[in-house]
């Protein structure tokens, strides 16, 4: 009987997708002890974008969040997403190195890194090197998208490149929930074969309504580790519910070492927190064909909804998503993942709220390679 392992996303991607990153450290601590008992192989706890949210809106110290959570969850490796505090801009190699060192020093044990274009030759090579030198387990993302370019052959090539730069683990990251069970049955075996023994994990969202079925298809195709979230921060635009996934895995004859009793307590506590703080609760979504058109990830939709609400313009959410389709096409169909998804949606919102499309253009649109730095002068390409 094959055992399936689980990575928890509740404390990072779960509330990014549903609460616009509004989970406070105290809310995390309220469930940390029970979540630590559950048997997750890792738990996401922070991403680069959370640092800005903590400081600017929540008025919290993100480094203290890492420290207290690492003490509260000693038996579960905590994961951080991203390679520096400069989420949407240039980061000198020295800053990337310092960031990885401080993550490790404050209690992070797993670094999840990605390049938005799946470029395994630039900054990500330096990021992986720094993370490994800091003693972190390195998990490199293959960002999933749908287009004529993103074939199984494309992902086979990218998987080989990810393994070659030193990834301990590779994970197929589907930020828009675009994966289908049928596609999982072809792409997963191809990537596994290309990785030649390097473990492969699967991360998806429920935005189209297909997330839980895609997880099962990925497992049946050979994946042993999947990412799930704890209700009320599961479903909706977040990851599939850990309870649903575990129940279905066992029905199909797979084993898991997960202890659901402490998770039930944690889930009930989070539901009470959501009710008290008037935060949304994730619910299973019906199949949504529109997601395949705009491809905006759940976390970006969550923050967009939050910002439009603050502006008193939530009624224009649909217009912004429609405009995102046009903007993405005009920019050459970038993969809709951080930072490109934020660039596209920000420009779409400006277009909708302005009297004329592109009357105002963001710096990030003008300089689309800002996350990698100028192509002609990238310090991590040198031997220094």
Describe the fold and architecture:
With 384 residues, the protein is an alpha/beta fold. The chain has two domains: 5-277, Aldolase class I (TIM Barrel), CATH 3.20.20.70; 291-366, no CATH class. Helices cover 48% and strands 10% of the residues. The chain has 16 helices and eight strands. Helix 2 runs parallel beside helix 4 (62-72), helix 2 (25-36) runs antiparallel to helix 11 and helix 7 (152-164) packs parallel to helix 8 (181-195).
Q: What is the chain-wise order of helices and strands?
A: EHHEHHEHEHEHEHEHEHHHHHHH
Tell me the name of the CATH homologous superfamily of the largest domain.
Aldolase class I
Q: Separation of termini?
A: 50 Å
Q: What is the alpha-carbon Rg in Å?
A: 20 Å
Low-confidence stretches: 370-384
What is the architecture of the largest domain at the second tier of CATH?
Answer: Alpha-Beta Barrel
Shape: globular
Which CATH class of the largest domain is shown? Alpha Beta
Q: Helical content, roughly? A: 40-55%
How many domain modules? 2
Strand order of the largest sheet: 1-2-3-4-5-6-7-8
Total number of helices:
16
Q: What is the name of the CATH topology of the largest domain?
A: TIM Barrel
What percent of residues are in strands? 5-15%
Structural class: alpha/beta
Tell me about the largest β-sheet: 8 strands, parallel, barrel
Mean pLDDT across every amino acid position: 92
Number of strands: 8
């Amino acid at each position: 009987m094959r055992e399936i392992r689980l990575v928890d996303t509740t404390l990072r991607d779960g509330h990014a997708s549903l609460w616009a990153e509004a989970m406070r450290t105290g809310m995390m601590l309220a469930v940390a002890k029970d979540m630590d008992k559950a048997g997750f192989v890792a738990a996401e706890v922070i991403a680069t974008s959370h640092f800005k949210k903590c400081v600017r809106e929540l008025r919290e110290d993100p480094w203290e969040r890492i420290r207290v959570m690492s003490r509260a969850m000693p038996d579960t490796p905590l994961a951080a997403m991203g390679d520096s505090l400069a989420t949407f801009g240039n980061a000198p190699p020295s800053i990337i190195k310092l960031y990885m060192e401080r993550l490790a020093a404050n209690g992070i044990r797993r670094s999840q890194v990605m390049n938005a274009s799946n470029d395994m030759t630039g900054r990500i090579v330096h990021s992986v090197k720094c993370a490994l030198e800091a003693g972190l387990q390195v998990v490199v993302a293959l960002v999933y998208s749908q287009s004529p370019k993103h074939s199984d052959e494309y992902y086979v090539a990218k998987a080989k490149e990810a393994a070659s730069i030193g990834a301990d683990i590779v994970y197929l990251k589907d930020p828009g929930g675009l994966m289908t069970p049928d596609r999982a049955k072809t792409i997963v075996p191809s990537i596994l074969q290309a990785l030649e023994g390097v473990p492969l994990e699967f991360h998806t969202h429920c935005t189209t309504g297909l997330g839980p079925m895609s997880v099962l298809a990925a497992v049946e195709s050979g994946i042993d580790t999947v990412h799930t979230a704890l209700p009320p921060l599961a479903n909706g635009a977040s990851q599939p519910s850990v309870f649903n996934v575990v129940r279905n895995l066992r029905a199909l004859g797979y084993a898991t070492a997960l202890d659901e009793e402490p998770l039930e307590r944690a889930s009930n506590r989070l539901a009470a927190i959501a009710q008290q703080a008037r935060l949304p609760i994730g619910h299973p979504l019906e199949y949504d064909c529109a997601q395949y058109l705009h491809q905006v990830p759940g976390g970006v939709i969550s923050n967009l909804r939050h910002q439009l609400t603050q502006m008193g313009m939530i009624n224009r959410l649909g217009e912004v998503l429609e405009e995102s389709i046009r903007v993405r096409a005009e920019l050459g169909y970038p993969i809709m993942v951080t930072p490109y998804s934020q660039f596209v949606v920000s420009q779409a919102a400006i277009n909708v709220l302005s009297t004329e499309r592109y009357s105002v253009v963001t710096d990030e649109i003008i300089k689309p390679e800002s996350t990698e730095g100028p192509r002609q002068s990238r310090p991590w390409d040198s031997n220094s």
